[in-house]
Design goal:
Strand content: 15-25%
Helix content: 40-55%
Largest sheet: 3 strands, parallel
Strand order of the largest sheet: 1-2-3
Structural class: alpha/beta
Radius of gyration: 12 Å
Distance between the termini: 18 Å
Number of helices: 4
């Protein structure tokens, strides 16, 4: 796997515009762009990009999960999660 890491949502969006990613994993609440904005950028760049959003205990003040679910979100992981849960969601997203 080739992996890229962004320090905030704005950097994630810029990276998505420059590089094709098969999968994007993003927190919902972060500096700069939020998780939904990163999700939307990934889908705008390439509709077949899978996106997994992560949130702490269901914290989602901008209703990112609801909006993204309607638009093809692959999965949501609630913190804290086990590595096995993450791997399972990654495998499922990439096999669809």
């Amino acid at each position: 796997c080739d992996v890229g890491a962004a320090v905030d949502g704005d950097m994630a969006k810029a990276m998505i515009e420059e590089t094709h990613y098969d999968l994007v994993i993003s927190d919902i609440k972060m500096p700069g762009a939020n998780g939904y904005e990163v999700f939307a950028a990934a889908k705008a760049a390439r509709d077949d990009t899978e996106v997994i959003l992560i949130t702490a205990f269901g914290y989602d003040p901008s209703h990112s999960i609801v909006k993204a679910n309607r638009e093809g979100l692959s999965a949501v992981l609630m913190k804290p999660f086990k590595v096995g849960d993450l791997l399972r969601q990654v495998r499922q997203a990439l096999s669809d």
